[in-house]
Amino acid sequence: VQLQASGGGLVQAGGSLRLSCRGSGRAFSSYTMGWFRQAPGEERVLVARIGSNGGNFLYADSVKGRFTISRDNAKNTVYLQMNSLKPEDTAVYYCAGQWAGQSTFGYWGQGTLVTVSS
Questions:
Q1: How many C-beta atoms surround the C-beta of residue 17 within 10 A?
Q2: Which of 18, 51, 20 is nearest to 33 (CA)?
Q3: What is the pLDDT of residues 24-64, one digit of tens each?
Q4: For residues 6 and 110, what is the distance between their CA atoms, to the nearest angstrom?
Q5: Contact, 19 vs 85, CB < 8 A?
């Protein structure tokens, strides 16, 4: 699957953004999808994950209650709604796909930069 992320930008603290990631290729609905982020000088970390059937959610503690991951398999798209943004949410955000039976995310989109100003 090929993944294309979009929706990043500059926002003030307390604001909201919605990231989108559109997939093309085989069987998007069979993939577990995730959003990761990488801040300058830090490792890439998982922010949120959603199972292929739209359930089985997982969120990083730092974003619980503020971010929501969702997917529309009819549109081959996964979303990350980010509310109450904080300066520490500033990072490059990546979407990724994990094929059924794999233990890691093997398919990655290009990053989209989110900058939260204080």
A1: 20
A2: 51
A3: 977 899 999 999 999 999 999 999 999 998 889 999 999 99
A4: 9
A5: no
